[in-house]
Amino acid sequence: MTDGPDIVWYFAYGSNMETATLSGRRGIRFSAAWAARAAGWRLVLDKPPLVPIGESFANIVPDPGAEVLGVLYEVTTADLEHIELTEGVRVGNYRRVDIPVVSLVAPATGVVAATLVSDARDPALRPSIRYMACLIAGAEEHELPHEWVAFLRAMPAGADSREAAEFRPLLDAVLRRSDGE
User: Fold this and answer.
1) What is the mean pLDDT of residues 75-92?
2) Which of 16, 21, 88, 155 would suit a FRET pair with 27, their CA atoms being 20 to 30 Å apart?
3) Which domain covers residue 95, as residue numbers?
4) Is residue 152 part of a domain?
């Protein structure tokens, strides 16, 4: 793992674990990615969307007895700013926190990484099957432990809402960078 003046660490635990989402949908060019663990946090799938589309998204909440697995990305400061922009940090959809994260690859290395959390929760919402497929694909792609993949597969999910299906093409059009980066 390298550090430099323009290099930062980003810990993804939701759909950004999947390269097709982070690079393909958001246009982020990461220089490295490792399976990783953040102790003291628990994954929840009850974060309401910024635009009401009838389904929920991933979030992590403090929990001293838990841990969340995800992907530790090495990105530039500009990449992290774009992630924050497209995740709605400026409008309160998420907020950035810096947390200790340890890679799962030998030798295990600990770093402080930026991640995104939200205080908004709605236990009546469930993630879509499509969204959970992104999490599972990202976990498998980055070789997270089989137990974590099984945990994700066991999460209750529902069909894509009509609103989400109609909104997604519009969202995809604005997520990608348009400044030539």
Assistant:
1) 93
2) 155
3) 7-175
4) yes
